[in-house]
Each structure stands twice: as structure tokens, then as C-alpha cells.
Amino acid sequence: MKHLVAIVAISLIISSCKSNQKTDNQTTQNTDNKELAIKIKPVNTDYFITENIIGEISEEKVDLRGIETLCYVIKTNSQASEHQMGPWCPRHIDDGIEKAGIWFDNGKVYDVSGHFIANLDEFYDDDKWKLYKDDGSIKVTDTEEACLSAAKPNVDEDYHNYCVECLPEYFKNQITTYYIPVTPTYQNSSQRFGRGGIGLAFNGVKFDPPAPTHAILAAHTIAPLDDHGGHVNPHGGYHYHAVTGSTKEITQSDTHAPMIGYAIDGFGIYALLDKNGTQPSDLDECGGHSDNERGYHYHAGAPGDNQIIKCLHGTPGRIDLQE
Predict the structure, then answer these.
(1) Are the C-beta atoms of residues 187 and 314 closer than 8 Å to each other?
(2) Cα 99 to Cα 275: distance, rounded to the nearest angstrom
């Protein structure tokens, strides 16, 4: 099929979102009185791991901020297949890093070994931290009831000073439905994330906004990620807060970083580093930029940033959860 390239004025970007056309588009943005060509790449559903998708990926016209938009409808149980989910919390202060996940603070990633748990009072300079008992065993939310009580902004007092761990099987029957524009539309101003998440990895697992570390730490709890950047909560099951290279990637023909999924606005998300280990120097406030091969797209933040992308430059789709 011959690809059509349409040059449209920025005032017509919203109208183009209604089109069913799935070929590459190009729009022009006026920046400092200079025209900057922004190439638009439609979503490629062939990249998704079909075994992780519930049913077939379908198309549906959806009202997005008052505009009827053709979207792909993708349903998943948010269960990773390329890697093991977990572990998260160690069980004893003598446990090594192989029995636990990771935590982040001020842009750095730390292994949550038993030693790390035992020294949280020094790490945070607060003597109220003590997640372990006198026998060295660590207090872990090891039931679904405990998970529901602790994995929320207002942590139940009974679960202060706990290592918060929820298991994927608690919520394996939840269905998350993503409505992602077939062809994204670039907006000059940044947009907030759509309700429920920021995007989707090719394995059907959700990319989430930053973990609410203020609420977590306020209860003297930590909720470790596994080594793959994911953990579990009651509102969406397993999800990622960091990109660590564990999921399906679409390798690029040049030295550019591989593609790892789609943002909820339909623009691609790529890893941070290219094949030479270099990160882009021209990213905008959302973590995106444009080139001739991929059009506008995002790059994931470093694992310790607690921020996969910071905002959107396209009209966000929608994420619905059926519990």
C-alpha cells in the first residue's frame, strides 16, 4: 500500500484525528517562527504479544475529550510472559539480593536485600523505621487481605513498618481495556495522562505514572519493584514503574534505542539508551522528540527516576479496569 504523506496546518491537527487513515502523516508546528515537520506514525498492533491479549484487537470510535476518535481496543490481564514477576520483599534480614527486588531514591536504584531492610533507619535518617522483628524476620504483607490494607495511599495503621508485597495471582482475573488512538495527533501543549496509566508494553502490562512514594514512605513502608521494574496493586494488577530491558523490544535498523511499547496517546515509547549506550540530548518536557524514521516518540526515563515519561504530547486515549 502506498503511504500517503499529508502536510496539514496545526489548526487542522484535531480534525485529522477523526480520520480512519493508518498511513504515516506529517504535520507542521510553528516554533519560534520556524516550521518544524512532525512525522506521525500510526500504531502497529503486530508488535503486541498476541498470547497476552484477551481476544482480538479491535477498532472502535471513542469520544476523547469531545472528539470522535478511531481507537484500537486492547484487553489484557496484565501478566508478564517474558520474565518472572517478582520477587519483591525479602523474608529475613540475612537474605541476599536474589530474594528481593529493587527500590529507588533520588534517582538511584538500590537492591532490597535483608541488609537494606535492616538499615532503613540509617538510609532515611529516621529511627522510626523497623520493618523486622527481633528474630530478624521481616514483616511482609503476605496475604491478599494485608495487600488490600497496605497497598493504598492511606495505609492501614496495622501495616505501618511493613514491606508491602502483593502477588499477581490476587488480581489475575482483572481485565484492563486500553483505548489507544489508531493514529496519534501531536499537540503543541503537553497533556495530562489518560485515566489509569500512561501506556502499554508489548506484553500487555501497563506503564504506570510515578509510584506515590510520599504516601508509601509516610507510613514507614516500602513497596519494592522487582528487577523488571514492576509490582502489583489492587487497581490494575502487575504494572511497571521503571524500564529495565526485560520486556519485548523492537530493534531499530539504525543505532536508535529499541521500541518497548506505546503511550496511551498512540506515540511510541523507546528505551533510554541507543546501541552505543548514549541517551538523547534533545528531549522535550515529556521525554519525547522526533526524527524522520520514527516520527514523534518518547524515551523512557532511567530506572531510578520513578518516571517512565513525564507527560503526553498527544490526545490521550482511555484505560478502563474491570475488577
Answers:
(1) yes
(2) 31
Instruction: Give how far Cα 113 sits from Cα of 95, 101, 102, 110, 124, Å.
Output: 6, 8, 8, 9, 16
**pLDDT value for 90:** 98
Which phi and psi angles does 54 have, rounded to 5°? Answer: -85, 120
Collapsed DSSP state (helix, strand, coil) of residue 7: strand
Cell of 151: 497497598
Beta carbons of 139 and 90 less than 8 angstroms apart: no
Q: What is the mean pLDDT of the chain?
A: 90
* Three cell numbers, residue 307: 518516571
Beta bridge partners of 222: 163
Please list the residues that pair with 291 across neighbouring strands: 295
Q: Are 102 and 86 in contact (CB under 8 A)?
A: no
Q: Decide if 167 contacts 238 (C-beta within 8 A).
A: no
- Report whether 16 contacts 8 (CB < 8 A): yes
**pTM, whole model, 2 decimals?**
0.89
Q: Are 62 and 179 in contact (CB under 8 A)?
A: yes
Q: Which of 281, 283, 247 is nearest to 262 (CA)?
A: 247
Range of weakest confidence among 73-82, 182-191, 193-202, 228-237: 193-202
